[in-house]
Amino acid sequence: MPSQFLSSEEYDERAHQLYNEGRFDDALSVLKEGLALYPTAVELHVGEGYARLAREEYAWARECAQELPPHPRARVP
């Protein structure tokens, strides 16, 4: 559990910085930590998908996209 309180946006920013540094494993860890606190944060799900693509985990990346929460204004047939 993190020692300080971070918002979902701060988790996303931290993971993005790690991703840009090529530290995909660390970025994925930060994203998972953030998703444990903010399971409906779309930006964290998207970030996880990108981190998994960078690690060439294509099936897992696809699963991340499928787990995205629905948009509140989305119409379900």
**Terminal Cα separation, in Å?**
39 Å
The CATH architecture:
Alpha Horseshoe
Helical amount among residues, as a percent range?
55-70%
Estimated radius of gyration: 13 Å
Secondary-structure element series: HHHH
How big a fraction of the residues is strand?
Answer: under 5%
How many strands? 0
Largest sheet composition: none
CATH homologous superfamily annotation = Tetratricopeptide repeat domain
Q: Name the average pLDDT.
A: 84
Characterize the structure shown.
With 77 residues, this protein is mostly helical. It has one domain (8-66): Serine Threonine Protein Phosphatase 5, Tetratricopeptide repeat. It is built from 4 helices and no strands. The chain is flat.
Briefly characterize the structure.
The chain is mainly alpha-helical. It has helices at 8-20, 24-37, 42-54, 58-66.
Keywords:
Serine Threonine Protein Phosphatase 5, Tetratricopeptide repeat, 4 helices
Layout of strands and helices, then pairs:
Elements: H1 8-20, H2 24-37, H3 42-54, H4 58-66
Helix pairs in contact: 1-2, 1-3, 2-3, 3-4
